[in-house]
Specification:
about 65% helix, mainly alpha
């Protein structure tokens, strides 16, 4: 064991940028170290070394750092994130976050994907979210997040769509009040750019943007903005449920124009998890008087209370959504009584 530890320490020393070892030596050393991060015993051994510190400065390709080093370095850090102490250490490194964001612009899809996965890992804790949101830099707060959103919305999609990991980061940071406020800032105009991805072909984009929307619904005073014409959230949430459901004329009279006769291109949401997130958001919207009123006026209840919406889900999913479904059903019955 001691011999192995000495060998590991020697390999790590080869990674120093200050050393006179050529690039190929660093590549070989990291090739031998990376597999160790795939086992618990290996991670525990590396946790006690300065491997992470060496890797922090070698996460971007340049004349002294090859793509091989970057990929293996990112893989090592991703795996080390499974140890809470390591995750906390990595999450607090601003230079790591800035390097990862720069990597999201890389033409190498593997580097983009690995950087996205690591950003996702780092924002699973409050420290990582705070670092990415730049909460300690008032003049720059939200700048990195804006860059990621711009890439997510406008960047030309690569094969396998590695930028979809940004959606997970958005869901993670909106678990913090500060993250929700940045996303919901009307002057930034972020939410209207992101809600169309609820109908995206990529499941990751749909699922995590829906998770972000659900988180935003918890922010005080957000509902009025979210259901406004400026965002049109209800139409985006309901279209994946409306497609494929047959409703009579009475049910759609007064409904949103887009939902009366859904375009032929619209498809029903196949993911039970996504439908559950849609329902969660609708329950949050209905918790506010202004939300309940719009649900009633725009004939939303007949769509979301159709048993067709959930009847094909597995029993476990049915149980998870049943409470929310019942809440909405009771609200609709109450609204009908008031109308009568």
């Amino acid at each position: 064991m001691e011999e192995n530890k000495e060998l590991v320490l020697e390999l790590i020393e080869f990674l120093s940028l200050d050393s006179k070892h050529p690039l190929q030596v660093r590549e070989t050393a990291l090739e031998h170290l990376a597999p160790m991060t795939t086992t618990e015993s290996g991670r525990q051994m590396l946790k006690k070394t300065n491997l992470s510190n060496y890797l922090f400065n070698q996460l971007k390709v340049n004349s002294n750092v090859s793509s091989m080093i970057v990929k293996n370095g990112l893989t090592c850090l991703i795996n080390l994130c499974s140890i809470s102490d390591c995750l906390l250490q990595i999450s607090s490194q601003e230079k790591v976050v800035s390097s990862l964001v720069e990597n999201m612009n890389s033409s190498d899809s593997t580097i983009v994907k690995l950087s996205g996965i690591l950003l996702n890992n780092l924002t699973h804790n409050e420290k990582g979210c705070a670092t990415l949101l730049q909460l300690n830099e008032p003049m720059k707060k939200g700048l990195i997040l804006s860059k990621l959103i711009e890439m997510f919305v406008f960047q030309e999609r690569m094969e396998e769509d590695p930028h979809s990991w940004i959606a997970s980061v958005l869901m993670n940071v909106t678990q913090l009040t500060e993250g929700r406020k940045i996303i919901l800032d009307e002057k930034r105009g972020t939410i209207p750019l992101l809600t169309p991805f609820i109908m995206d072909q990529n499941l990751m984009r749909r699922k995590y943007i829906l998770g972000m929307i659900k988180n935003c619904c918890f922010e005080a005073g957000s509902i009025e903005y979210l259901i406004s014409d400026q965002v049109n959230l209800l139409v985006h949430l309901l279209m994946p449920l409306r497609a494929g459901i047959t409703l009579n004329k009475e049910d759609v009279e007064g409904a949103f124009t887009e939902l009366k006769n859904p375009p032929k291109s619209s498809t029903r949401e196949k993911s039970a998890e996504c439908r559950k997130l849609i329902l969660k958001s609708l329950v949050m919207i209905s918790s506010q008087k202004i939300g309940r009123q719009l649900l009633k006026d725009k004939k939303v209840y007949p769509i979301i209370l159709s048993r067709e919406t959930f009847e094909k889900d597995k029993e476990k999913v049915k149980k998870e959504v049943e409470k929310d479904w019942i809440k909405l059903q009771k609200q609709w019955e109450k609204e009908k009584e008031e109308l009568d």
